[in-house]
Amino acid sequence: MRRRRFLALGAAAGVAAVPGVATATASAATRSPRLLADPSAAGASDSLRDLAARIGLRVGTAVIPFDLDTPAYAAVLANQFSVVTPGNEMKWQVVEPAQGQFDWSGADRLVSFAEQHGQRVRGHTLLWHNQLPDWLTTGVANGTISNSQLMDLLEQHIFTEMGRYRGRIWQWDVANEFFTDSNPSGINPNDFWVSHLGPDVIPRAFRWAHQADPGALLFYNDYNIAGEDGSNAKSDAVYQWLQQMLDQGVPVMGVGNQGHLDTQFGFSGERMTQDLQRYAGLGLKVAITEADVRTFVNNATAQVPTDNLAVFAQPYEFGQMMKACLAVPACISFTVWGFGDADSWIPGFFTGEGYATLYDVNLNPKPAFSELQQDLRLAATGAPRRVHT
Ligand code: G3I
Q: Which domain range does residue 368 map to?
């Protein structure tokens, strides 16, 4: 409740202060959402989405459906972003809470919002160890679901979910977070899926996904796979695995680097650029899929950084990620994992940290927003156009 009040209170001021959003008032958003997607405005404003569109890049965000009820939030979403990722609503736990009983309400709402506002959708995620339905994990644990049944259920899940949205999802994160954080890295043998079905479950999932929606771009998605681990061990392991997959004709088409950074750790934008370019060299698309930059804050409500330098480091690291994407023409989208600090997953997962997104808890744009805007403004006159074929 407290979190919602912050968002609602600051929302009107936030909208008025966002460049390119001034005409999209809360009431306009409520009355006529389609106004916000007026195609005649495409490329004309200095919104993130319009600036990026000039070089064929899309800028996205993760979204929580109930936030669409806040008009000011919906206005920023519609005006600044051209891709939407359901933060949770396409995960198996959410779409099939009881076996055979489906809940597509959240996912349907987001897909429909995106379509009304000229946005594309990143589907997230089909094969992951986390946020699986209890009936599935319990059944596997007590032996009422055998490994062979588990494989069948996975196939069915992929065809059911991708079939429902066939032709409406731009990129799908087919497989998520399979590699260890160790040095050397490799596919985690203790992963739920790998431990029951072996590592071949990943290429199988990609093949099913390609059958289910042949037009969708199929991504492998993970964190720390562009040098953020310092050693580049995870990137090396993912790169080698991708080579094997492509040699075997597995329809992997893209690599998503999540981009969850923390100002307390070192980070090399140059390394990220090189790693993204290396994936692109395999003929793959690349994307930044879940960007945020966290730091230590006073408390989880106000999220004011405790280190004065963090207000420089946070936008700097956002900018480094954007520049890495801009330098690689195969980088077709840059997605943030939520755009307001009040909605970020960070305070709930990292004790004492926050301030991780582009807008503050009152939905006012922060220096990181201006940083990305400036990067995109400059890129519009110099960065290579994105390669989409
Ligand atoms: O929906 C339930 C609610 O019914 C319950 O009362 C409440 C009690 O805690 O939990 C709610 O579920 C939460 C869910 O988010 C929806 O809000 C879960 O506890 C919480 O664990 C879950 O967190 C999500 C997290 O993935 C799970 O690992 C975050 O929202 C989501 O942003 C985050 O996203 C992941 C990406 O999918 C993959 N990459 C990392 C990224 C950040 O962790």
A: 11-381
